[in-house]
Amino acid sequence: MEMKLISQNENKTTFLAKGTSPAEVNTLRRITTNKVPTMAIDTIEIIENTSAVYNEMLAHRIGLTVLKTDLKSYFVQADCKCEGEGCARCTLQLTLDVEGPCTVYAEQIKSKDPKVVPVHSKTPLTKLLENQKLKFIATAKLGSGKEHIKFSPGIIYYKGNPDIKIGNVKNVKEIAEVCPKQVYKVDGSKLKVAKQQDCILCKACEDASKEIKVNTNNKDFIITIEPWGQLTPKEIISSAADVISKQTKEMIDAVKKIK
Question: In angstroms, what CA-CA distances link 194 with 128, 169, 239?
Fold first, then answer.
């Protein structure tokens, strides 16, 4: 498989994967969503809450707070030496103690590990009026999207790499205007492809002219990752590859035991 970066910004990364198959790309998508571990708040002890938000709703908001994740420093509890009991190698304590009047933001949550902090600092948790208080102790752990969506590192989706063939097109301006993603450009009397990889395969251009054919193949795919912020796109793909490799090895070992 060959990978080539197409575009990247703070919220989205798109790359071209060549020489693969729908099964492999879909496996990457499913593993990323369901198996790549990230850190999230799992339990919370609310010591004092006199805000207008009920404890259950407040715990829900806090649990969905996106946390930066350091995969090198923490283990999934099932793989930790504590055997799921909870220790500094697999869990992290976070606290908050504030008094109103103020709006309580995620950035006010104090973490014992400076590498694991809220990604979106201005995520509002609740609003406190004068003399109202909020105090809690929360415990974060590594988990996967299969357990709860709050552990999922983001969304990933893909499409076949468009293959656009242009024949003797006469209504070039009409074709360029009918494309919703402005894939084409007019060069004199000719129609040319300007942004092939922006094509969404709607085939509106095919409907406007029989001289245009838009196809895809089953070997090249455009993959897009929109991370929530716990991990970088590179960390997400690397971690997904590690999970696939581990599961493949486990399957091979299981097959070898069959007599």
Answer: 53, 16, 34
